[in-house]
Amino acid sequence: MMSIMGIGTHIRRILSIITWSLTGAGVLVLLVAAIRYRNNNTCKGILIGISGPSTGFFIGKKDIASLLTPAGSLKIQDRPIQSFDLRHMETSLQKNIWIKKARLFFDNNGVLHVDVTERTPATRIFTNEGSSFYLDSEGVQLPVIPQLAARLPVFTAYPARSSGHQSADGHQSATDHRQPTDSLLTTSILHISKFIRDDSFWSAQIAQINILPDRTFELEPEIGDHRISFGDGSDIAQKFHRLFLFYSEVLSRTGFDKYERIDVSYAGQVVATRKGSGQSRYDSLQGMNNIRQLIRSAQQLQPDTIRQQAVRPLENNKPTEQDLENHDLLPVPDSAIKNKKTTKIK
């Protein structure tokens, strides 16, 4: 009895193996047939898609098509599918500086899909030798296209290097490098630039950022004739927060002619250097009105819980002579800093 059951089990195993083998062979035959059919088929067309924040602002579908079909080559449409080297085509596309990533594939209808991710400038750089370029969020240098204008944070006096060249169409010479040489400085630039771009108030107020020889930063505002010592690229959010409080609590009342320099590089405080006595009363009042309008717009467009808690409403604060005197700040503890005033802002 046991022998008959063992034979039955053995037969079932053999039948199962045969069934799965035939199924696998059938699937393989169908797959090979499908591949042969596709390879013997011809390209029915091309569908180009561009993704990224700018979505085709710096490189368009016509540009991508011209990269795929350079002068003298066969047209894409009606070519046998098996004649396409998709991996090589992807690599060729990614040699263009504006293309971050490219993916090519054929669908079941014989249409070639070209999916491209575009690089987007994150900041504008001017070197200390007078040249200019963009940086994307990964620190890749992008050429400036005169016909296209991008409103971005501007950094000046970036240390120049002599190697390499980039043409306006995005092609690079063999000696050029996509990454800047000073990676730490570049990282700080990108972090500061992102903070400014993401904040409507600072996007409107910061005109440019100067890179000093010691790799620290100095901000130039749109409104006001003063300079802002920012320090290095650390504690960016805290520094801008202290600066915003100084703007809203002090400059919105005293005006912009009372201080020639504002230093937020010290942790937990703002150091302000006063100007001489020859200040214009009209300019001070006009500056107060301008900055109040900017602050109101920032609070309406981009509410910030921390800011709202720390900053008192400004609409009902009318500047007076007493107000201007009351906003003189306490002396800096370090006696080496002369003619400066400071306040603790946390």
In short:
The protein has 346 residues and is of the alpha/beta class.
Q: Shape from CA axes?
A: elongated
What structural category arises from helix and sheet content? alpha/beta
Note the beta-strand portion.
Answer: 15-25%
Sequence stretches where pLDDT stays below 50 over 5 or more residues: 162-169, 171-177, 277-284, 303-339
Binned, the helix content reads 25-40%
Radius of gyration: 32 Å
Count of beta strands? 14
Q: From N to C, what is the helix and strand string?
A: HEHHEEEEEEHHEEEHEEHHHEE
Mean pLDDT: 76
Number of helices: 9
Number of domains: 2
Strand order of the largest sheet: 6-5-4-7-8-9-10-11-12-14-13
Q: What distance lies between the first and last C-alpha atoms, to the nearest angstrom?
A: 89 Å
State the major sheet.
Answer: 11 strands, mixed
Account of the protein in words:
By secondary structure, the protein is an alpha/beta fold. It folds into two domains: 45-118, Ubiquitin-like (UB roll) (Roll), CATH 3.10.20; 121-344, no CATH class. Helix content is 37%, strand content 22%. The protein has helices at residues 2-40, 61-68, 86-94, 183-197, 200-205, 236-254, 281-301, 305-310, 321-326; strands at residues 45-51, 99-106, 111-118, 121-127, 132-136, 141-142, 154-158, 206-211, 217-221, 227-231, 259-263, 269-274, 330-331, 340-344. The protein has an eleven-stranded mixed β-sheet with strand order 6-5-4-7-8-9-10-11-12-14-13. It has a three-stranded mixed β-sheet with strand order 1-3-2, covered by helices on one side. A hairpin with a 5-residue loop joins strand 11 (259-263) and strand 12 (269-274). Helix 6 (236-254) packs across helix 7 (281-301). It is elongated, with a radius of gyration of 32 Å. Mean pLDDT is 76; it is low at 162-169, 171-177, 277-284 and 303-339.
